[in-house]
Amino acid sequence: MTLPVVSDQEVREYRQELEKVLQGRGYYLNPDDSYTNNLIHGILVNTKRYGYGCCPCRLAVKDQAKDIDVICPCYYRDDDISEFGACFCGLYVSRQNYKGKTEILSIPERRAEPKPVTRSIPVKELKITHNVWRCKVCGYLTARDTAPDVCPICGVPKERFEIFIEGNK
Question: How far apart are CA 149 and CA 159, in angstroms?
């Protein structure tokens, strides 16, 4: 099987766009330019191969609905960064790592672990007129009829949102 061709220019443009999206949001790219560019190259290869930017460090099943949790940025990014200083593939790192104050540790695979959702108030008792949408990547919540086109916190598209609480209409 021949991999799709990705040019250095495509990698530079994607990286510039990614850096623009991340600016001021508290996310940092790995400071190792060569490593980061190789990861971005892999994401772009997967985008051309599958039609979506699956993490190059995980196996894809070629079904976007089944791979949605590992489309970059993956659902596990924030927990990995908080606990280990970087996401599973090492593209995103903590501020301390970015500034060279800590090293990236070995990061275990979280994909097989389902994340339980807990709510402290029974949903039936809430008087909500709109759906509450949750970004599966960063956890951002918003009450509105439809998911936002782009998450204002982490920048992912609306396909990465789920209904967290259905409104009582």
Answer: 8
Digit-coded pLDDT (tens) for 91-108: 999 999 899 888 777 888
Domains and CATH numbers, the chain: 8-98 (3.90.460.10), 123-165 (2.20.28.10)
Q: Are strands 141-143 and 132-135 parallel, antiparallel or unpaired?
A: antiparallel
147-169 CB burial, b ≥16 within 10 A, e <16: beeebeebbbeeebbeebbeeee
- CB atoms under 10 Å from CB of 94, counted, come to 21
Token representation of residue 96:
């301390």
Number of neighbouring beta carbons within 10 Å of residue 109: 11
Quick check: pTM over 0.85? Answer: no
Tokens 């949102």 — which residue? Answer: 161
Residue 65 to residues 62, 69, 70, 91, 141, Cα–Cα distance (Å)? 9, 9, 10, 23, 21
If you search the block for the tokens 């220019």, which residue do you land on? 9
